[in-house]
Amino acid sequence: MSGKKIIVLSGGTSAEREVSLKSGSQIHSALIELGHQVELEDLLAINQINHLKKNVEVFIALHGFEGESGILQDKLTNLGIDYFGSNAQGCINTWNKANCKKILIENGINTPKFLTTKNIKAMEFPSDIFLKNGFYIKPSEEGSSIDTFAVKSNEEFKSLKQNLVNPEREFLIEETINGREFTVSVLKGRCLAPLEIIPASGIYDYHAKYIAEDTIIQKAQLEPDQIKLLCDIALKACTVCECKDWARVDVMQNEDGKFYVLEINTVPGMTDHSLFPAAAKISGLSFNELVHEIISDA
Length: 298
Description:
Elements: E1 5-10, H1 17-33, E2 37-42, E3 57-60, H2 65-68, H3 71-79, E4 82-84, H4 88-95, H5 97-106, E5 114-117, E6 135-139, E7 149-151, H6 154-161, E8 171-175, E9 179-187, E10 190-191, E11 195-198, H7 206-210, E12 216-219, H8 224-240, E13 246-254, E14 259-265, H9 275-282, H10 287-295
Parallel strand pairs: 1-2, 1-3, 3-4
Antiparallel strand pairs: 5-8, 6-7, 6-8, 9-10, 9-11, 9-13, 11-12, 13-14
Helix pairs in contact: 1-10
């Protein structure tokens, strides 16, 4: 049998487990159709990879801590096993949103102003002037917009604090950028078609991402010079954060046309509702072609 020997790691134990399982299943199917020798493994503990042999390559479809913090990439490197996607340092640079934003700021890339707290339940309504028009609260780590909320009043803040899935972690308090939301999928050093996200609820949370049928995902309607600027920003963000192979950059554009990078995802979702495959499709790539490019040596 020809083709690569590939292990797809998905699942895990994070809050993003179900999304990861769906991503892994679709990647697994695509790789089989592409003619590779593929196994799909639900990674429930990091030491599960100790049995892997050096003649296999790993496609990481794990979202959350196991797949995006750098711990898995570091372990694979130490075992001498090749994998696709960003290395440990690239994941470390982007996993914690506050740390990622600091790197962006140091390199002249706009990002919304923010502060962090490790005790969200005890936190009083922030009085910082840059938060006066409202703010978002989101975990400094994890993704899929779990525990992400828009806040405009003290009453909302008090209520939301009581309804967090996991309040015992660091949270990011980020200024609201009123305007349009875009996402740029970066594949092997180039941008796929930027997408604009228009959630009916006004916030692209877990429900809007994976459940709602009325979230609008469309090709970004921007002037060519704005498309180029948006792509240049996304590429620079990936470069300074040391991302490799593929990543997704989420961006806001304020009412004056200024772009702000929100975060970078080093293991983007690959489900039917996910943005990276949607960008690939608009760019003329089928799902299988997208997977082929991710694992390509070129």
